[in-house]
Amino acid sequence: MAVKSADANGVLAAFLEALHHVDLTDGDIKKKMIACTFDGASVNQGAKGGVIVKLRELMGHVLISIWCAPHKLELLLLDATKATDFIDIIEKGVDPIYRLYYGSGKRRREVNAISAVIDEDPVYFSAPCGTRWMASRLRAYKAVIKNYNSVILHMEEASNRKTEEGAKCVGT
User: Fold this and answer.
1) How many CB atoms within 10 Å of residue 76?
2) How many CB atoms lie within 10 A of CB 159?
3) Per the domain annotation, does 73 fall within a domain?
4) Residue 50 within any structural domain of the chain
5) Which pLDDT value is given to residue 19?
6) What pLDDT sits at residue 72?
7) Out of the domains of life, which is the source (predicted)?
8) Quick one: 60 and 93 in the same domain?
9) Which has more pLDDT, 22 or 162?
């Protein structure tokens, strides 16, 4: 269900709409819901007007709020990686490569043509950030490592061009 408004009322409305979509009535929800899990955003967990507070009011009974464990783990890993220069160095290498290819169908076609010539799989880059932060970061790193030869060959070839395209490859 689409969230029409990013405030607690909008998130709650989308949440309830999703439950109604799977044929749960308001009575079913009030009778059966005992706990909910959300990420730690204040719109969800806010003590004065977050989604969980509004749900408790709607339910009329105790409702356990659980902070989403995978989200909390990702935040923990993010904090841990900030203390490591190695991750920062990798990110500074991966992100420009992702941006160079993600934003240009032409560059993706060119690097995939090189991949075909050197008998490598087609190149698919994903963003090094996303909803599942660690998984998306790992996919991005693996894509760069797996396609390193194709990327380097393409960037070398493109950097010889006296065009904006070539300048972007030199800068990356």
Assistant:
1) 10
2) 15
3) no
4) yes
5) 94
6) 83
7) Eukaryota
8) no
9) 22
Q: Residue 36's beta-bridge partner residues?
A: 65
Which parts of 10-141 are beta strand (E)? 35-38, 64-67
**106 and 153 assigned to the same domain:** yes
Q: What pLDDT score does 170 carry?
A: 59
The CA-based diameter of the chain, rounded to the nearest angstrom, is 69
In the chain, what are the helix, strand and coil shares in percent, each to the nearest 5?
A: 65, 5, 30
Instruction: Supply the range of the domain harboring residue 146.
Output: 85-171
Average pLDDT over residues 45-73: 90
SS3 state at 69:
helix
Kindly state the tokens that stand for 143: 């894509």
Q: How far apart are the C-alpha atoms of 99 and 81, rounded to whole Å? A: 21
pLDDT at 41 exceeding the cut of 90: no
**What pLDDT does 43 receive?**
92
Closest by CA to 141, choosing from 153, 157, 125, 120, is 125
* Total tally of structural domains belonging to the chain: 2
> Residue-wise over 48-58: b if at least 16 C-beta within 10 A, else e?
eebbbbbbbee
Tokens 């693996």 locate to 142
Any idea how long the chain is? 172
